[in-house]
Amino acid sequence: MNTSKLVMTMLGGACLAGASTAQAVNWQAGDWTLGLGGNINAFYTVTSCDTGDLNSGGTTLAGLACGSTDDDAHSVSNGLLPASLNFSATTNQNGYDLAAHVNVYYGIASQGGGSSDALAFSTVDARQVYLTFGNDSMGTVLMGRNFGLFGLDAILNDISLVGSGPTFTADNPGHTTLGGLGYGYVYVDRLAQINWTTPAMGGFSATIGIFNPMNGNANGSTSQGQDSPGIHGKASYKWDGDINGLVSATFITQDVDLAGGSESTMRGWDLFGKLGFGDLGLTAYVYDGEGMSSLALGGLVLPGFDAATGDAEETSGYYLQGTYKIGNTKLGINWSESEQEKITEVENTRITLGVYHNLTPALTLMAEYSDMESETSVGSDDTNALNVGAILFF
To answer: pTM of the full predicted structure?
Structure first.
């Protein structure tokens, strides 16, 4: 599987959690409440590349955007979210709230990316399969495959979650674009996990869990993480009022055995905050990590570890975002930056301007313009993308 297809397979489950529940349809089946919801989206995107000194083809994220072309690339594809069909079943038994979730994701691009192959078909994949149980006194236990904690609030509050944002391999699109992945935050990923969330304590909550250990990319070889589980945690506080908001902090840590016999660690922390003042919204996020590239935990496109020295990549980033609502229309701007500085020196910056109009409560029409730049010690790649499209939640 080539680099662009591998990335698209990984990113195919970009976070939908919390984005479509308002439109879910519920019905009773005995003591169970069954729910069905989802989304369908499509975007027409024109991407223009100036590959500068580095040329495209994998050297930087901006260079990867156009893949094999150094000119305009046109595509009709999904945005940051693939289409989805989300099923839930909930009930209360013996004083415990029980729930099951199976969320299946679809793409409108042909299998393997692109849309020009005759008789090609898209793929289907269950990205979230998990159960929960708990009550007001014990909190909630989650077991199964779900999105992680590190970077979750960053992607859920990115203006491009329901849009497209920065493109990726525009000449051969997959099931998702990058959004802000690699530009301000690392992908949260879908991970097998068992975690516990505290009971509600005013606006405060905390989650701690064990996660299936991840392998890492060590200069093209695979590092092993099975010696110990990943430990992830999160604490958050949410409040309402004339000024409403949310603040959160997460951490991740896991030991990794490298192919050369040395040991390393994948670790990271982040801070997130947002405030709402009537129609104005402000959001800020910052992270710092080791053993991950600016795109993904463990490393993707660029390695997370050096197999020879045992060094872990060091990456950090942030984004600042503002939104303003005018009736049914929201205007948004996002400025973000990610940097790697240990194994591969690269700095990715992005600015996205967006207009999002709720034609109906279920249907949003939008247009976005994104300008991206990647700089290394030997040159830079520049990309800009304009997209128009729509997303329908049901």
So the answer is: 0.90
Q: Which amino acid is at 311?
A: D
3-state secondary structure of 171: coil
Chain position carrying tokens 């949003």: 364
∠ CA 59-302-349, nearest 5°, is 65
H and E: helices and strands count for the chain: 3, 22
User: Which tokens is 77 given?
Assistant: 């594809």
DSSP 8-class letter at 296: B
Phi, psi dihedral angles at 57 (to 5 degrees): 105, 20
Query: Are 86 and 61 contacting, i.e. CB atoms less than 8 angstroms apart?
Result: no
C-alpha distances in angstroms, 303 versus 112, 226, 297, 298, 375? 23, 19, 10, 7, 17
Tokens describing residue 132: 């929960």
CA-CA distances (angstroms) from residue 272 to 153, 157, 186, 300?
7, 10, 13, 24
Instruction: Give the integer Cα–Cα distance in Å for 287 and 181.
Output: 13
Predicted confidence (pLDDT) per residue in 51-107, tens digit: 666 654 445 677 666 665 567 788 888 899 989 999 999 999 999 999 999 999 988
Report the C-alpha gap between 97 and 381 in whole angstroms: 51
Strands 216-218 and 263-277 turn out to be: unpaired
Distances (CA, A) of 62 to 35, 169, 200: 40, 10, 42
pLDDT surpassing 80 at residue 26: yes
Q: Which amino acid is at 252?
A: I
